[in-house]
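Handover notes (outgoing to incoming on-call)

Open items:
1. Carbohydrate ABC transporter permease: sequence verified, structure written out, both below. Nothing else pending on this one.
2. Nothing else urgent.
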Amino acid sequence: MGVFKKLVGRRRGVDDLIFDTVNIILMLILIVIMLYPMLNTLAISFNVSTDSVRGGIHIWPREFTTFNYEHVFTEATILRAGLTSVLRTVIGTALGVFASAMVAYTISRPHFFMKKFVTLAFVLTMYMNAGLIPSYLLHRELGLVGSFWVYILPTLIGVFNIIIIRSFIEGLPETLFESARIDGAGEFTQFFKIALPLSLPVIATVSLFVAVAQWNQWFDVFIYNSSIPELSTLQYELMKVLSNSNAAYGSGAGAADQFARSASGQIETVTPQSVRAAMTIVVSVPIICVYPFLQKYFVKGLTIGGVKG
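Carbohydrate ABC transporter permease structure tokens:
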């Protein structure tokens, strides 16, 4: 019997070792697959553009230069677009999360007599909408076309975010709210003093969702404000760079290269490929820097918020 237990223990030990080895190898492959495109783009953005055309650059620049970024940031539209992107992300996230949280709190209350009807009405909007042309006409009639607020107000309430926050609030002990009502607290007091502070994990999660969506959005700029350079965003500028690069390569135009003088005084050149890589890094880095600060709330907020439907 003792020999049998030793053999079983040895077998399980070998199986665990094989599983761990295969698991580690698969995870390393997955990491490489996810990181390589970003590292390759970063390497190209820091490489001399004429050398990048030769190919063969992987995760490290062959001839280092910062001229691609110098060229990008000398464009006045880029700095202005960056400011617009930051403003729409900050303002849109703050107002959107706050508005969604208030609606979520309202429909989470058991004594709200229109709870089921309002919830159903919100959910239906996730499956159907009026379409692009009616939406454009509505925004134009409301005076939003050609203004900064067209980026904020139409997406102020997110139904998916409401459902997540509502589910989280419904999981909070109802005795806390009952005690507050006995002490004379109104709905606003209960929301600001109880629901909101205890919902910080899910608020952080939803904030990440909204911030990423706001930062990455470019289509609304194209539809509503494409003729107003002052209201352009980084993502829209990146889209224009990509479109121009594809057009230049498609026509085989070597004239797409642009020559300029670098900060060191030397004449250097940029190509559509190098500008595209530099712009991609510029628009990606800010949101990547924000994510680690919210990561600790991310899984917890989704897990707790998804307990109830």
